[in-house]
Amino acid sequence: MTPTVPSESLWVQVKTILSNGPPAYTFFTLYALISSLLLISNPRTSLTTDIIFVFFLLLVMLVYRSSVHKYFKHTILLFQLCIVLPYFGTLNPFYLEVATQAGIFVTLALGLNVVVGFAGLLDLGYVAFFAVGAYAWAITSTNQMTLINPDWVPLPPIAFYPFLIFGLILGTITGILLGLPVLRLRGDYLAIVTLGFGEVIRVLANNLDRPINFTNGSQGIREIERPNLFFADFVRNTLGWNLSDQKLYELFFYFAVLLIVFMTILVVKRLKESRIGRAWEAIREDETAAIAQGIPLVRTKLLAFAVGASFAGAMGVIFASKQLFINPPTFDLLRSINILAMVILGGMGSIPGAILGAVLVTLLDLQILPRTANVLRDLQRAGFPIPAAFDPTQYQRMLFGLLLVIMMIFRPQGILPDERRKEELIADEPDDLPEQPDQSDSGTPPPSAATPNGSK
Amino acid sequence: MAAEVNAPASARFGRRSPLEVLRTVFGPVFQLFLFIVGSALALSLIVVLLALMQMGSRPDILTRALTILPQVIIDGLVRGFLFATIALGYTMVYGVLEFINFAHGEIFMVGGIVGAAIGLMLFTSGMLAGVPVLLFVAIVVLAGMVVSGSLAVAVERVAYRPLRGSPRLVPLISAIGVSLVLQDVVRLIVTNTPMGFNARYHTPDFGSPIRLFEIDLGERVVPVIVSPKALVFISVALLMLIGLNYLVNATRLGKAIRATAQDRPTASLMGINVNRIISLTFLIGGALGGAAGALFGLNVGAVNPYMGFIPGLKAFTAAVLGGIGNITGAMVGGVVLGFLEAFVSSYLSLFTNGALSGAAYADIAAFSILILILIFRPSGLLGEATTQKV
Amino acid sequence: MALLEANNITKTFGGLTAVNDVTLTIDEGRIVSVIGPNGAGKTTFFNILTGIYKPDKGTITFGDKPIAGLKSNDIAALGMRRTFQNIRLFNNMTVLENVLVGMHTHLRVPFWHIIFKLPTVQREERKARERAREHLNYVGLDDKREELAKNLPYGDQRRLEIARALAGEPRLILLDEPTAGMNPNETAAATTLIRRLRDDLQLTVVLIEHDMRLVMAISERITVLDYGTKIAEGDAHTIRTNPRVIEAYLGKGAADAA
Questions:
Q1: Interface contact C227, partner A, CB < 8 A
Q2: What angle do CA A21, A24, A28 make, to 5 degrees?
Q3: What is the pTM of this model?
Q4: Which chain C residues are Cβ-neighbours of B384 within 8 angstroms?
């Protein structure tokens, strides 16, 4: 007799059946069809639709985690993200907006994950690079150009496309400029300096309306240019879909973001599995040992910083253009913390983790919190003793702060941990005194090394 | 903590003579005094030089610069002591745990809120006018110390202690989380009380500003004034600094703290209860932060739940500037940074003819200092160069 | 021919002179030991050679190149690799990956090749893996290549450190107490391995060691440090009979062994 707990064995059985073989293929196909149908037949924004939407997105993760054939995975992903979701978006733009927003943050989370997760550098001012990209397009595509110099004119909308590359380069340059001086610093100093840098960028955005008006100060920049839809005629005439400009823009930004997300994932994955990824990991584990292998410390860290910053820079351009309006508070510390929370929630160093984290936090921000606020308001009206000033959408700091603390205490490796990072992040003996002094002892007698410790 | 560097050799063995105790306690204060005078003089000199350089195009600039100078120095002193008292909390915790207690700015803020709450309670009960000024100061400072100190200890228990032994990044992230949580918990509380988000800090009448002296410009007379509140702030801060120096450098407890900072495992082998010492460090740091908050709010006249963040960041800068882990260094760093900020915010717009607003760029100046110090002298003004061990 | 020449190296920490005016010449293809009582400055001297510390005074030439003041990673890239007294592996990486990290300076596909996943990347990676396995084979760890470094037994960790150092294809390898904490069997195996490094691979080996039997058996030249100063230099016989060495180091009862 094997002493198995029935419920557990059932769960394991279900999991095995659904991750392999014909039942899995049938299950996922049915899941995809049913969730799509449900979604399309419920185009109104409501709690039901929210739930279906989450259910719909959940498939992506389930398929990814299962062991069905690669091509099947891709087909499901393609069907859901490139056909059903955009079509549903033409029925209800709100959910497309949620998806686009989620995509933007997936890219940012992946970028920050390179810095924090791969290279182990805590960057608390990551949003600064996003801001640089966004402000670059906002300034050059609007009347700010003329305000800076009367002879200059705003860039034409078509410049948006090459400007994406420029945003990428600008992000990289900013990353290098900040990184060069500060990457020599120890980890915790780096956190503070990047935080300071984020503040500096925000203060600059707030104050560079004088003596020359670059950023329009706290007013922010309005009427940011959107790219021209060179494909509009094709869609309307050749494909015969009569969509308004507004809808076309929504779809355009969705697909642009999706494309960038896809490219980001590829790049990040390739880097992670390369000699560079190994060097990042080595530095994260033991800087001194890494240098002794000939790994140039500052240059390798700088690379992580620049890669992370480049994604943020490019996404900034899209963001500014999509939002049409940006102002300094868009890029405050809370935004950086937000992105950090995504990385930590999903799992530092884990690519699927960063994606999941970004989607979850975005859903939380755009759907769950406002819904909860509504529910609370209703309860309040019904006479429940809920403080009037308590609106969950206004208490993001508390929420994300709690999230960070709780994750660090109970699951520092995140929801979808990177296998390697998991070993590293879990403290060996958390409350053991006298404990192993961190990294800095040369005099330890060898016997202590006989039971090597994972963390330093 | 490198404070033990200041202690005479005999301090490590046996009892000391009262004279030696005086030396260990007032030595740092004297050092602080030197830095105050030194940085005030150096910055004034720079101002004069800058003014002389612009004399050609703007003949009145030297007079204008000089008339505000005494006021700027007083302002710098107030800011400096503010940063110094907050920086002590960072530096003590760092000295013992090598950990940046990110939430310390919020501990400071809570002190301010507590002070304002007391002021409001006395005000609504109508007793405020009857309370003697010094008694009021004592009450808010003590209350701020108790609440903030216990809060700091509680935070360490809940959010940091379980993470000891984890990679450095982990407690740091937890501390950031705590900082955000505290901001919003306090906001939730104050917005549901009569205090409101921007709470006014009611105080008894401190009397009118004291005129120190007057500068006679011929056509008008510019008075140099100092508010009684600022005077109270500076004196209480100074008293606390002396008290802390006594505690750390001349008592058994202080010795235990220094031992724990030096080498935690060994300290624990010597029978020191390391966990208690760590709690105590948070208590002292938190209490100082709380007192600073109560006094700062009193001085400014209003408090809000987000007010701790930027001063916290700057106080950390001050701690690094002075040499993190070094108590005297934190005070020196605070004062130097305070002067620097006061000078930048007062003179930047004067020298750029109003093109740049000094208040906004003072922040940037502070962070630039942080970056420069970390790059060129990471050990700080008073810190010893630490060598990496392999 | 001298591969490494360190002239008049001095290093002080605060008031303490850890290494005082030490001169050391190491000929190519030799096995050289640096010995001395605890705290004699041996590891500090290694740290100076490998660029972790900058010497206050003195010059170092490595194969005609002045290296004093160069960064640690540049020195490693020139072909000087080391192991650490208190083993410093990348604990949460696999055995194979540890060796691959050691090969970092020899992997040169440009960044953008990686981004675009050009065939060059895979080719280089495949070759690197083959080479890494050769190194692992050499120290006898190939069958453990997929294990995490931290899960290896102590002796294997020491060997992995050597394999990682070998992965850099060095000309000179510095071993900091390679047999510390080993039992006699392990020590014997380590001795054979060290000798093979020189005999098969023509490496120059410098070691810090406390096991006098090992030192006397395999070193062709021995340098003795005491309180940061070089007090003797020569072959095993010279050192054994040097009165200053006996006084400073072997004097305390170990003299009979000598």
A1: no
A2: 145
A3: 0.88
A4: 14
